[in-house]
Write a structure and sequence with these properties.
This protein is mainly α. It contains 19 helices and six strands.
């Protein structure tokens, strides 16, 4: 096949180089964006009188027909044509003849690929944002059912203080809310139209870049032609946003994996979101959660790959930048694969409330409340901390919890302790006493849920 850029060359490209150089196997997914961008460009060329209006109309009509052909499975892309841009241009020229050769007037593949990638990622950001919105709704819907489900909270993976499962879920709501906001912010910097930058120095043709910007629905036009073709910050930023989303998914999945073990037994994954063992008949493995945890490293790798690819590239475009697409495409695909299955896994799992409550009652999670009880009786906190520490050591030596101690045993450590200690250190009191903003008390969590619903409705 004769290359569209082959005028200067006297020898055909080696077949292995064609295969090595070609990106059509992965950039073909941008065919809609490439055609949309070409239609806007052709319309502008005709409006500006850069090419005859009749040719502009022919090009636009031909591109629309090619789009239909692709979507109906009638097109087979060619490796020899290198990429989606030149495949579309060849298809157009084959379809409408000489007029098709005018399409590339006033543009380069450098600004064309930058345009297509931005348009493609803008569409993907919108789709992932909708998935995050669904994730937020899922967390809220489950949290509403568990405002009275008491469980242990942990630090250092050691039991610390009692909370509710609703409070725990709403912590992840805050994380995914930040993820949604980060994506929205990332979208602003992706939403910049680079077409008209040319190869690196713009063009002598009287292009109307603002017109193309409006036609394609961009918010702004790139202000420097060198930066317009060489900027991939938006892809790196998106990869960073996706990495943080995966980190949040992985953290929760790690907890679910622990909680579904026999040692915790706080939750049980639905059969539809578990797998068995080929040798051990009793096994029910949380493979979905484990796979999400594993895929997190894959997305991290793509972020590091993009950063490394871009770190030594001088202005403006270099062929290295063809390596931007596979990482960001796979990072996007991975997040889109994980979010829906994660939500369904949560919605179908069984929460073992009694085991969670039993877990909260162990490990002296009410020790801080015992210290606070003494503080409220007038004792300095540091003294109270010391006394309760001694109480805990005593209880451990007797194989008891604080709740099991008699009033006489309590009084051996402080005469300030009365019968009301038992109510003060009950799990319900420990949770609902923490009713400041952000705390685990039922009323506070219900208020957070109500606020979360308003946030979701505003999206």
């Amino acid at each position: 096949m004769e290359k569209l850029w082959g005028g200067r060359f006297q020898k055909n490209t080696d077949k292995k180089v064609d295969d090595f150089n070609s990106s059509i196997r992965f950039d073909k997914r941008m065919y809609k964006q490439d055609i949309r961008g070409s239609i806007a460009h052709a319309s502008m060329l005709g409006k500006q009188g850069i090419i005859p209006w009749e040719d502009s109309e022919k090009i636009i009509s031909g591109l629309k027909e090619i789009l239909c052909d692709i979507e109906n499975g009638k097109v087979e892309f060619l490796i020899d044509a290198e990429d989606i841009h030149m495949n579309i241009e060849k298809l157009l020229t084959d379809k409408i003849g000489e007029s098709g050769k005018r399409l590339h007037t006033g543009r380069s593949r450098n600004d064309q690929v930058a345009l297509d990638l931005r348009m493609y990622l803008l569409d993907e950001i919108d789709e992932i944002s909708e998935m995050l919105k669904s994730t937020l709704s899922t967390l809220v819907s489950i949290a509403e059912k568990h405002t009275d489900t008491i469980m242990p909270g942990y630090t250092h993976l050691q039991k610390a203080q009692p909370i509710t499962f609703a409070h725990h879920l709403m912590a992840y709501f805050e994380m995914f809310k930040r993820d949604f906001d980060r994506l929205s912010d990332c979208k602003k910097r992706t939403d910049v139209m680079p077409l008209g930058s040319g190869a690196l120095a713009g063009t002598t043709y009287p292009l109307d870049r603002e017109y193309v910007c409006r036609e394609l629905g961009f918010s702004a036009v790139s202000m420097n032609s060198l930066d317009g073709v060489s900027d991939r910050d938006f892809a790196i930023e998106l990869a960073s946003c996706l990495s943080i989303i995966m980190m949040h998914l992985s953290r929760f999945c790690e907890e679910l994996i622990l909680w579904s073990s026999h040692e915790f037994s706080f939750v049980e994954m639905d059969d539809a979101y578990s797998t068995g063992s080929s040798i051990m008949p009793q096994k029910k493995n949380p493979d979905v959660a484990e796979l999400i945890r594993g895929k997190t490293g894959r997305v991290y790798g793509h972020l590091m790959g993009l950063l490394t690819t871009m770190k030594g590239i001088p202005l403006a475009y270099n062929k290295d930048m063809q390596e931007d697409k596979e990482p960001i495409f796979d990072a996007v695909d991975t997040v889109k694969l994980c979010l829906p299955v994660f939500c369904n896994m949560l919605l179908t799992m069984t929460v073992k409330k009694d085991n969670m409550l039993h877990g909260a009652k162990g490990g002296f999670t009410n020790a801080t409340d015992a210290a606070d009880y003494l503080v409220k009786k007038g004792m300095p906190f540091r003294d109270a901390h010391t006394i309760v520490g001694k109480l805990v050591f005593y209880a451990i030596s007797k194989d008891k919890t604080l709740d099991d101690l008699t009033l006489a045993e309590f009084k051996e450590f402080s005469s300030l302790i009365e019968d009301d200690i038992y109510d003060a250190i009950s799990m319900t009191s420990c949770v609902n006493g923490r009713n400041i903003i952000g705390g685990p008390a039922k009323d506070t969590v219900l208020a957070a849920i109500a606020k979360a619903k308003l946030y979701i409705e505003s999206l």
